Amino acid sequence: MTIANQNIIDLVTEKVRPVIESPYELVDVEYEKMGSDYILSILVDKEGGITVEDTTVLTEVISPLLDTITPDPFPDQYMLEVSSPGLERPLKTAESLKKAIGSYVNVSLYKAIDKVKIFQGDLVSFDGETLTITYLDKTRQKTVDIPYQSVAKARLAVKL
Fold first, then answer.
1. Side by side, which strands form the sheet with 130-137?
2. Distances in Å between the alpha carbon of 74 and those of 37, 49, 100, 124?
3. Cis ω on the peptide bond leading into residue 73 (within 30° of 0)?
């Protein structure tokens, strides 16, 4: 991701976070080029999941807000997409990781632990410093403690 894109994400997050109120939760903001189009995705969730009506209401609140960001941070036209984060929602904050305790997760690391950079298993605990995951290594159940600062990406995962 470019620094310019990260700046756009930061500006948009700062602008929309205050208006996404309970029962909604801002999960993530993404700004990416897909084909020849730029897409600004605002991922929102709520207990029981997001409906099409929810995304319509939120789009009507968020869209005019984006026009008030000055100077305009968007170098090109973009499409606004307000949607659910889906089953494999990103876990971007310590708070979201704490809420995910007991869930099946996928965690990618900056630096390998025992030659492994991606762990997928049950998040047993997270105390703000260390994630503890139980996972299957071939046929053996194992547990790994992962320092929070080593986590590059984390998301919920679907167990097949």
1. 140-147, 130-137, 116-126, 104-113, 151-156
2. 12, 30, 33, 41
3. no
Distance between CA atoms of residues 64 and 50, nearest Å: 21
Mean pLDDT of the chain: 92
Please name the residues in contact with 90: beta carbons below 8 A apart, sequence gap of 6 or more. 27, 28, 43, 96, 153, 154, 155
Alpha carbons 53 and 15: distance in angstroms, whole number: 22
Confidence of residue 151 (pLDDT cuts 50, 70, 90): very high
Q: What is the dihedral of CA 130, 112, 152, 125, to 10 degrees?
A: -20
| Paired tokens of 152 | 């590059």
Of 10, 85, 80, nearest in space to 39 by CA: 80
Helix (H) or strand (E) holding 9: helix 3-16
pLDDT digits (tens, 9 = 90+) for 45-80: 998 889 999 999 999 999 999 999 888 888 889 999
